[in-house]
Amino acid sequence: MTGSALTPGIIAAIQAFGDRINLHVHLHFLVTEGGTDEAGVFRKIPRIDDSRLAEIFAREVLATLVRKELLSPEWAERILSWPHSGFNVHSLVRAKTKPEAERVGKYMLRPVLAPERLTFLEPEGKVGYRWGRDGPGQETEVMDYLEFIARVTSHIPDKGQVMVRYYGLYANAHRGKVRKANRVPVALGMVEEELRPVPSKGWAEMIRKVYEVDPLICPRCGGRMKVVAFLTEYAVVDRIIRHLTLTFAAEKPPPAHIFEQVALMTAEESGDYE
Question: Do the Cβ atoms of 207 and 46 come closer than 8 Å?
Fold first, then answer.
């Protein structure tokens, strides 16, 4: 079934606030790790590519801004070319049980502020709000009460604005089709696809972020290269190098003190120094 279309279940929650009741627009998704095929069988996918999802998310958001004439196409392409565009996807949280899924859901729908973190400094006429995780790293921000009211009210949704949306298996349209077809909802059969070992893209992402160079771009034709295998046997690597008659030479020799350190370490290891 590799490559077949699957229908996942998605619950999306829009949040516009951060831990300090500040403006921090982001999205939370509760997503099934897979979806149903045409036969109604739920197929679990082996992994989620965060970098690919972040790229798709960035393109969709920027395309929407361009359609609304809030951003020029030139600036959209420029942002997409940046090594750090500001778009990020984090999918490491896994809910394996119903209580864990409920805890994630409560976090997605948490209120703007927690009353137990709020204090009123009466002599100064100011409001203190504790933010961060409980412990030594927790901080308190003190603000004027008018600023506090402005922060809280700025996160009140507009009239009719939907903050939680349901897609795929969780959408009303999908449930309506099930009722219209007079089908009785049953527990989904699940098939877990085999997790095929593939090279991690973490190393390439780190090189791209640190050196701002994509190591998977061919320096000759500019095409996208694909990792087919990692060779870890020194003997195999040496045979390939000899077969291709490759030579490796540094552009300039390392500093002299490096050789002095290496020589000293060698002498210490052999016990020749006194």
Answer: no
Which of 153, 159, 170, 188 shows the shortest CA–CA distance to 12? 170
Q: Note whether residue 140 is domain-resident.
A: yes
Which tokens hold the place of 218?
């061919």
Domain that holds residue 120: 113-154
Whether 20 is covered by a domain: the verdict is yes
Instruction: Indicate whether 16 and 101 sit together in one domain.
Output: yes
Same domain membership, residue 187 and residue 106: yes
Domain identity same for 97 and 148: no
Residue 71 lies in a domain: yes
Nearest alpha carbon to residue 20 among 144, 142, 109: 142
Q: Are residues 131 and 22 part of one domain?
A: no
Alpha helices for 73-161 (secondary structure H): 73-81, 98-108, 145-153
Torsion angle, CA of 106/110/116/121, rounded to 10 degrees?
170
Please enumerate in sequence order all residues whose Cβ is within 8 A of that of 33, keeping only pairs 6 or more positions apart, or say none.
44, 45, 48, 94
Residue 228 lies in a domain: yes
From first to last of the 274 residues of the chain, give the pLDDT tens digit.
455 788 899 999 999 999 889 998 889 999 998 888 887 788 888 778 888 888 999 999 999 999 999 999 999 999 998 888 888 888 888 888 888 889 989 989 889 988 999 999 888 889 999 988 777 778 899 999 899 999 999 999 888 999 999 999 889 887 777 677 665 554 444 444 444 554 555 677 777 766 677 778 887 787 888 777 767 676 777 777 777 776 655 555 555 554 454 455 545 444 444 4
* Residues 150 and 160 both lie in one domain: no
